[in-house]
Batch of 2 targets.
Target 1
Amino acid sequence: MARQTASARYRWLVASRVLAAVLGGYALTSAASTLLALLWPLPLAEAVAASTMLSFVLYTLIIIWVFASQRLRTTWLGLLAATALCTLLSWALLPAGGSL
Amino acid sequence: MAWLHTWTGLIVAWVLFFVFVTGTAGYFNYEITRWMEPERPLAGTPLEYDRVALVENGLDRLQQVAPEAEFWAINLPHWAQAQRAWQDYSIEWTTLPQEGHERGRRGSEQLDPATGGLRTDIEPRDTGGGRQLYVMHYALHYIDYPIAFRLVGICTMLMLVAIISGVITHKKIFKDFFTFRPGKGQRSWLDAHNVISVMALPFFLMITYSGLMFFAQQYMPAAGAVTYGTDRAAIERFYDDLYGAHAHEAVSRPRADIGEMMDKALATWGSDTQLRSVFIQQDSGEPPRVKIGRAYGNAVLWREGHDLSYHADTGEPLPAEPEDNATVQSVQFMFGLHEGRFAEPWLRWLYFIAGLLGCGMIGTGMVLWTVKRRKQHAAAGTHFGHRLVEALNVATIAGLPAGVAAYFWANRLLPVELAERASWEVNVLFLIWGETLIYALFRDIRKAWIELLWLAAAAYALLPLVNALTTDRHLGVTLPAGDWTLAGFDLTMLALGAAFGYMAIKVQRRWLAKITDTAPAARSAVAGGAR
């Protein structure tokens, strides 16, 4: 019985980690690449294209980081905090003509 | 990290194997198309034509068919590196967009360089050719395009993760590269997987990452969506900003002598340069421009710097159009590396071999997964998941190549007048692939491996024979004629047949050795499992 609970717990942890990597990672990558596009001293279209191109490196690194980390809860918190920070900064930086 | 590598790899392995097989074939897609259209004549020495007459004749025709055009182009007969074929004499145009339309209509005509009139071309059979194989590597088949390229994107992203985590898993990557322990079951599969993966690692990283770039904005739309917006107009605006956009005015026949412009261009490039095209366009607020283009070259940015501009009315040289910005150049560079259009034939073979190594990397990884777990499941009784993976492996590694061979068989054997013939060629590919999967699910897996490998070997090895029986473009004709595109196809098929035959023999020996000598095999497998 105890073994079954442990196994169920293990499965939940794996599911949570996969979710953190795939969805949490995608959210953070999206937010970070937006911020990078706004910060990059290039004409806007070029900055968008360049930061979008780089975002795949970032996504890969985040996924690997999530799977390498010891404490899943810290990882989730880190992902959420970083996403929130990037989003807020992007929002503050967004020129008046932006679509938001 | 080993866990991440194993599972990201397994989830997408079958799709990626398909992508690698069809994409690798794509490096020879023009050659494959040529083979699949046997009605076309053998390669001969092309005739020399008077370039000026061809241009004048093209302009006459363009004035008739496209009086209100935003550009006119006359393509001169030349040998093209990208297509690895002779490009025929043709004209192309795009009309000015009509009121309420974003773009004009494109048009083109093939002209006969001897008469100047429309060419009555040979009608080849209806075939998807190499292009259909190549397109499947990012658009799959039977699935809506927007869903398909996203599916492929997810698999590609997982492959990137699998590659990076695979490298991290290897603490001894350099030592492993020189390690091969054959005949040791699981350990040998691991060594083979390592050697193949590391051998072409830069290629795999390049091809995966640059593959993502083709749909980068679709896969990762956030930055563009926030700064530009998501509606059509916003997306249009983004690409106009990125690539630069001009308003165009209707072009008219240049008043200056185009023959002189071509002579000037040849004086700059050298008189043995092949001219590719004459392109006429008028950007609003700019002088009318005639661009003389030479055959595309061997640089990764294969289109860059292959034109010289002249004023259409005075014939004076015009400054070159501004270069693409650094970002666009980076994108084009990655596209260039991915597609390998700049590569001359030997480099193209290297691309092809690297692609085959990609199939090998994925294939050995897939086999390794099952070998590692086989004893465990054999002890615990039949496990459906494991059985399914085994069946998918054999159906993909041996069955899919057999399906591709069947695609070529269908090209030769389906009746020429069959309706929707081109789509039936592909249906045959998937029918064979699907049947091998059913076969692998119900047949003893060892027998399935051996039999399907032999099937693939026979399907490829017999293809030149089928070709000889159904067309007069077989090796007996193409070799003496020195048509290396057609002969090369048949020879490559023979080589693939030999490769699959070799694999079949190897697997057969191994299984037979195991059946006659079960006890030591079981011992070594246990030792392998403990690893």
Target 2
Amino acid sequence: MRWYLVVIFAYILAVMQTTLFAPHLLGLSAFGGAVRPDLLLVMALFVALRGEPAAVFIAGWCLGLAEDLSFGQGPLGVTAMLFGLAAWAVCLIRGLLLPARVLTQVLLVLTVVFVVRLPQQVLLWWLAGAPVDVVLALQRGCGDALYTAILAPYLLWLLARTVPRSGALSQ
Amino acid sequence: MPIARRRSRRNLIVILLLVISLGLMVVDRRGGLASRARAVSAHVFAPSQSWLKGVALELADRGSTGDARLARDADDVSRLKAMLAKAEADNATLSAKLTDSRQELRRIKQVVTALPDYPLMLVRANVLSREYVLPDGGLKVDGGSGRGIAAGHWVVHRALSEGKAAGVARNQPVIAADGMVGLVEQVGHHVSRVCLVTSPRCRLAARIVHWDGQSGQWIPQPDNGRIQGTGDGRTMELLNIARNVDVCPGDFVVTAKAETGIAEHLIIGEVTEVSYLPTDLTYTILVRPRVDLGALDRVYVLSPRGSPSR
């Protein structure tokens, strides 16, 4: 994999994610709050479907850290660790998936974003000493997961065309 | 590099990253380090974000219909108006506080100007003892049942950060902003101990300053009495005040001139209860200290000018 392309894409996606999804632009209001897609997590999933486990974890961790730095709140390390673990888990089960199919991509992204968002939100509240609102965390997780899942096939297609054509997405 | 060696190195990095994540979460819970890191990373992201946002807003403006734009502008205007109203309210509050502070400063300057001619000097001291003020105003002391302390007991002594070296001597009055705190009981070179006014061992000559509703004035009563703590840690008892003296709850009790040489008119407390028996010639007057003795921080010892100093 051309890692320099991953770095460039990560930067572009971080900028897009923090800029374009403001309330007056592409940001949506649903599930009782603002809903934003997690493009960096889609990038981490793309890497997870192609790389070897340790490299996938490292890449996921770095992408999580980029999100922590560009968009995150609270202490560093929460998003980084969750991204790394999520990417590593997907890497382990990717043999069971058919990631070239759009439906698989949508369902995978939907699941992973929801599974990452929920503990991320709860952990950040807990670490900040704020009251943990599980219902709100579920709502945000659902909203973000749906929005990300809608955009994911386009982004994964773009990434698959840009980085070398090898790995699970082109099988 | 052999593949196995490369893998083991990568696994080591994975473990290291996990440890770093957990470490950051535990050590930097309040996000101080994260804020600094984000401030640094803003140099990398901000230029592109600013440019992209400008482009996106421009495109959104071109693409939106007139009504949508008007609705958004109206939202912005109402938000800005709310911010302006809040800023004006904050400004008014701060201006009022500033005026109060200026008046206070002027009063302090007047006092400071007059001080060199005054026969007494104020020795500033901090309350030192290993006792802690609790959120509800109570005190926590560094002793327990092992030292004979039990629930319901009250603190009657406090330690000060000044002693002989600053001119503090025995029986000098200790005051705070609201009134009298107690008398210096023991003096060391750099520390001293105060017997609080609520202690039965703190005895002072005192008199009543009565509020005369008809004339609308505070009138010092001529008779002196003796005030001392009742022992409950909260109240004092003023004795030997004759029945012909005007006194009622809410009146002030101040120090009176006596042989001990304590300055006059230092406020000790407020009268809370006045009682007498038909056969008594004097009142029994309960007094509450004016100073919150549970929340003492900085106090002043009234020391005669010319006493030994550093």
